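Extended Data, panel c. Modelled sequence:
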Amino acid sequence: MQGFETLRSGEQDERSREFSRIVGKSHALEAVLEQVERVAPTDSTVLIQGETGTGKELIAQAIHNVSPRYGRPYVKLNCSAIPFDLLESDLFGHEKGAFTGAFAQKSGRFEIADTGTLFLDEIGDIPLALQPKLLRVLQEKEFERLGSGKTHRVNVRLVAATHRNLTNMVGRNEFRSDLYYRLNVFPISLPPLRERREDITLLVSHFVEVFSRRMDKRISYIPKETLDAFTSYCWPGNVRELQNLIERAVIRSDNGVLSNPFSTSDTNLVETKPDNRNFVTLPSAQEGSFRDCQRAVILRALDVSGWIIGGPRGAAARLGLKRTTLISKMKKLRISRPVRENQADRLLEEKRDPEMTATNS
């Protein structure tokens, strides 16, 4: 969720302070900020939904900034980044000796966030076994640390976020319906970048300024064709992907001119196969469906990375996505690694002669 950083025009000083890292003037973004301003003064639970890379964490921070709890603790936890056996302790704390390795008492995130705001990112990844305890603290405002019978009461405002469809998860019995209804008091849906294209120019200018300052590299000109490439692209990785590409473009820029990361001269983005044909032509938003665009971009990234998905050189890193998110998208788009010619011949031989499989195993 980093990567939704943008710059706002600051006509209203107070609102500029509250949303200092959120930028844009599109109707879609303005609608989201109006919802933030409406719900922030309350203590109601907020569920932020949106694709990966749309900026859910920054919206959660904005809700805290506008609320009466501003200046009190703002605590974050990514539920997908913590192993199941440690997540309960992270949320609710534990006593010394509660489990192997618990050498000292530890306060959980709910305790730390008392009187303030707790942001739980990727709430859809909370295991079913832990969901009743989370539901209890939301309803009763009380919990026990692991290894303790003492009940602790807290005053915490919860903001949750997910890129998952919780309604579908409830239907598949992967998420408790009572917890979903308790979380979904005030839902906010973040628009993907392809639905707020009028903000892309502002975002490009902002990220160019950020990275050129960080790298002590002056960028004074953005060619029209480069800007057109940014505004016509479908952005499956949303603003996080935009941020990553701008950083790469600034690194490769010379003479104060921003390079075009979509250019065929950029060997990281457009590679050639052994037959010297371009692997895929980048489709614009006007050419084909968004699904086709996603598929083309993912296939190109997989080919460039040698079909390695994870790791710093993998396709997920190139797209600015989590490994699990990319795998999920590949399943939805029915993307699988192509069978090499020698593999195909071998499979054909095995089909013709079933005994060959037994012989080779």
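Residues 5 and 21 are 5 Å apart (CA to CA). This feature is highlighted in the accompanying rendering.
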